[in-house]
Design brief:
The chain is built from twelve helices and eleven strands. It has 295 residues and is α/β, with parallel strands linked by helices. Strands 1, 2, 5, 6, 7, 8, 9, 10 and 11 form a nine-stranded mixed sheet that branches. A two-stranded antiparallel sheet has the order 3-4. It is globular, with a radius of gyration of 18 Å.
Length: 295
């Protein structure tokens, strides 16, 4: 594991950009960017267009390691290039932004109030390829919709099991059990979730550490015990459907938690903007998320 990258992620001031929209979320991301589904035919053209969007973001002068600590990539992006360099190499060598990779294969159908990750038999091969390409860490998402202890335990068991597999392969796992912001009992879910996290973090083998990506909590500062836990490198927050202003305001009230926003980062960006307009809009977005992350 790259120690310079680890130090930046653990102690740096800034946030992690989530640029990992995959097959299911790409049409929505493109539409928000001003690209309608009628503008492309099939997945290949769709992924070319979303790669062009991501290239425009990461190559912008607004996007650099002074405010953006890391960026989470989709597998196809890892295998593509930015400005003639492999995407992970470009991020680190040109921008001093630590590269991460989304490694889950999507969600199972809901059971016991949660959606587990789908089986991922090719994960070890993907991790070998990712580490060889310079990927520092990974991200994987489950979803919790109800305060169902059995379901939440299953989510945590799966996240920690796969997280250990990722750590053993030489990458830093980001565990992401997203709590739906629409959940009627969101605060209760977060109580169960935190207790389950602390129990499992305390039991991790010596020398093993993880990152956590969590929905912004109902009670400000609720995840402080996780922020301070010696086995947690960093706690990052997803925007989870909140608009950027709301997400930033909630984030600023949770000390020690930094952003890992996707939709909130790209809010206001458009394919129709001139480069100056695009860069100005992205700069404003990055500055707002950065300020909320260091508040």
């Amino acid at each position: 594991m790259n120690q310079e990258q680890l130090a930046k992620v653990a102690k740096g001031q800034g946030f992690i950009a989530a640029l990992d929209q995959s097959g299911g979320s790409t049409p929505k991301a493109l539409k928000l960017y001003g690209v309608e589904e009628s503008a492309y035919n099939g997945d290949a053209e769709m992924f070319d267009m979303v790669h062009a969007m991501r290239t425009r973001i990461v190559s912008s002068p607004a996007f650099d390691g002074k405010r953006v600590l890391g960026a989470i990539l989709f597998e196809q992006t890892m295998d593509r290039q930015f400005d003639g360099l492999d995407a992970p190499t470009y991020l680190w060598e040109r921008k001093q932004v630590v590269p991460f990779l989304k490694v889950d294969k999507g969600l199972e159908d809901e059971k016991d109030g949660v959606q587990l990750m789908k089986p991922n038999p090719g994960l070890n091969d993907l991790l070998k390829r990712a580490v060889a390409k310079g990927i520092f860490g990974t991200k994987m998402r489950s979803v919790i919709n109800e305060a169902n202890e059995k379901g939440i335990e299953a989510v945590l068991d799966q996240q920690f099991e796969v997280g250990q597999q990722i750590f053993n392969a030489g990458a830093m796992p980001i565990l992401e059990p997203e709590v739906s912001i629409k959940a009627a009992d969101k605060a209760k879910i977060e109580t169960i979730l935190k207790q389950g996290f602390i129990k499992r973090l305390d039991a991790l083998p010596e020398g093993v550490s993880v990152m956590l990506k969590l929905t912004l909590p109902e009670v400000d500062g609720f995840f402080q015990e996780l922020v301070d836990h010696p086995r947690v490198v960093r706690v990052v927050a997803l925007s989870g459907g909140y608009n950027r202003d709301d997400a930033n305001a909630r984030l600023a009230r949770n000390k020690g938690v930094i952003a890992s926003f996707s939709r909130a980062l790209t809010e206001g960006l458009s394919a129709q903007q001139s480069d100056d307009q695009f860069n100005t809009s992205l700069d404003k977005s990055i500055e707002g998320i950065y300020r909320a992350s260091i508040a």
